[in-house]
Amino acid sequence: MRTMATAPTGSAQSLLQSWYPTTTVPLTIHSFPSLEPVSLEHWSTQHLHLPLRRDLLYRAICYEGDSHRQGSASSKTRYQVAGSHTKIRPQKGSGLARAGTRQSPIFRGGGKPFGPHPRDFSTRLNKKIYDQAWRTALSYRYRRGELIVCQDGMDFDFPSMLHHIPKRGINKPIHDAYIRKYMTGILKELQLTGRTLFITAGRRRGNLHQGMLLAPRLGRVLDLADVDVKDLLETRKVVMERSVLRDMISQHQSDLVSNIVIHGAAHKGPPLGVEMLPKQ
Predict the structure, then answer these.
(1) Phi/psi of residue 247, each to 5°?
(2) Are 128 and 38 contacting, i.e. CB atoms less than 8 angstroms apart?
(3) Largest CB tally within 10 Å, which of 163, 184, 216, 226?
């Protein structure tokens, strides 16, 4: 006798859905400098939840380090040293060792044998591997709770007392010490212990840059164009603006975006943040 398969019940359907892989992760957007949560967004796991790949991070950091080497060291050979190239003494009869020209490497002021010359230290790395290393570094920070995303325009105001200090005849070192103490108190209140990296985009944030410049032991401020993979990994926490994260992901997702057009369309990659809970 033929039997008919029964349709899955509601509990079975929910059980099947629970086994589906997660495709998005939540990301909280904070206000600055209070770091109070403002909104909640969905981001793709391909952006902020990649598995840790130490090999990719190592290759990316080596690639960046090689690209930053100037390779401008230069030394003169014996044929580039100025002066007469005649023999300094006869071959025999002087009682001294045989010698050629004054430019010989055995004499002081002579040429340098096998010395450094200008060269290019940069190495090659596939762009898709480099982009995946960027998102791996962001994912590592996200999973550890060390990635803080704030609203655009990240800056704060100094107390009015700090603006009146120069007018009262107090010298600049004391004024800088007040700012350093104020910055230490703010970061301690926000539980940003250790060194913190602030990443901004667009115009320069005057007070934030000035405060972190006077307190380098607390961290530093970088523009998006100056950030590397190594910068994302060497500090205790990373605080960035929302537009910085969007630009950072959009610039480093070549392995997720297809250049092949099929039926008039190409895969543009996962969306860059979908708002779940709007601003209150």
Answers:
(1) -65, -40
(2) no
(3) 184
Q: What is the pLDDT of residues 108-150, one digit of tens each?
A: 999 999 999 999 999 999 999 999 999 999 999 999 999 999 9
Which of 129, 130, 127, 131 shows the shortest CA–CA distance to 250? Answer: 131
Establish if 88 belongs to a structural domain: no
Query: What pLDDT does residue 103 have?
Result: 94
Residue 80 lies in a domain: no
3-state secondary structure 207-274: HHHHHHHHCCCCEEEEEHHHCCHHHHHCCCEEEEEHHHHHHHHHHCCCCCCCCCCECCECCCCCCCCE
- The answer to whether residue 13 is domain-embedded is no
CB 138 within 8 Å of CB 58: no
Residue 16's pLDDT is 57
Distance CA 21, CA 170 (A): 62
Q: Shortest CA distance to 136 belongs to which of 61, 65, 66, 54? A: 54
Look up the CATH number of the domain holding residue 191: 3.40.1370.10
Range of the structural domain that residue 242 is part of = 23-69+126-277
Amino acid residing at 153 = G
Interstrand relation of 24-30 and 37-44 (parallel, antiparallel or unpaired): antiparallel
In the chain, the number of structural domains is 1
Structural contact between residues 152 and 243, judged by C-beta atoms closer than 8 angstroms: yes
pLDDT tens, position by position, 74-120: 999 999 999 999 999 999 999 999 999 999 999 999 999 999 999 99
* Coil vs helix vs strand at 135: helix
